[in-house]
Amino acid sequence: MEKIKQNPIVKKLGLNRIILVVILILMFIVFRVALGSKFPVAESITSTLNYVYFLGFLSLGVTFVIATGGIDFSIGPVMFCCALMSGYCLNSYHVPLALAMIISILIGTLFGTFNGWLVSYMSVPAFIVSMASMNIAKGMASVFTKTQSVSWPLASDPVNGWFRSIVSVNGFPVGLVIFLVAAVICGIILYNTKPGRYILCLGSNREAVRLSGVNTKKWEMLAYIICGTLVGIASLFFVAAYTTVQPGYGDQYNNEAIAGCVMGGTSMVGGLASIGGTVIGVAIISLLQQGIMAFGLGKGQQMIITGIIVIVAVYADVSARRRKN
Q: What gap in Å lies between CA 96 and CA 211, rounded to an integer?
């Protein structure tokens, strides 16, 4: 094992990432062999990518929060809130589509700012803040839309059909390109900028960072703001792929996004994050969801499997930390 770890290619790519890629490939092969025609290659890849887009942005956002040692369980409902409120403005108040998209991102950013302010400046536990924000997001969306579902423009729409091009253009996965570019930008911010290094240091040793004269509250709040902005972007990819969104939903995506992060190498206690690992982890979670649906399992079974994955991922993280110590 030590020889493998010392291999230049393995050291550059990371053993954990290589293992995750192998798992992803094996999963696809197993689903294809076991399901046959129920798991067609082209359609399955398209469905998986549609899931990757919005879940990927959720995972990228929560990676910043977890890196500080915090947590945010409101990202799914906030994503739905962004899509519902901005979509309602588009349909009922006839605001331009571009403005509706901006509104969606702004709502996510405002939630991130609100969460970050409470956690960093008001010292409210992140768990409590995220639970409260989750309920606020659901309530706001329901009140604003009068508990009605909201649909975004179809590709056939002569005026706003261009909206679908953020996901696909003539079969080309534009959404994948946008997501990967966003992941690269997130990686640069987290590893090659002062804010990113401070965010990681907060998770490693907050008190040492504070005693060195760094304004820990500002950088912790920034992590939540980045998360909120990415959640707002995720909402656009969700409605671009699935069109209709209903009030009161979104909780199920919290665990999936967090599982993608932790599976990819982001530590739940903070201080260690892997953007590349998050991308692969999200792909595994998305492919798993498509496989589960192809097997004909219900939503309850999907939630059970996702919950087990979260437990296994967190346990693996804790075990790795213990071995290092």
A: 49
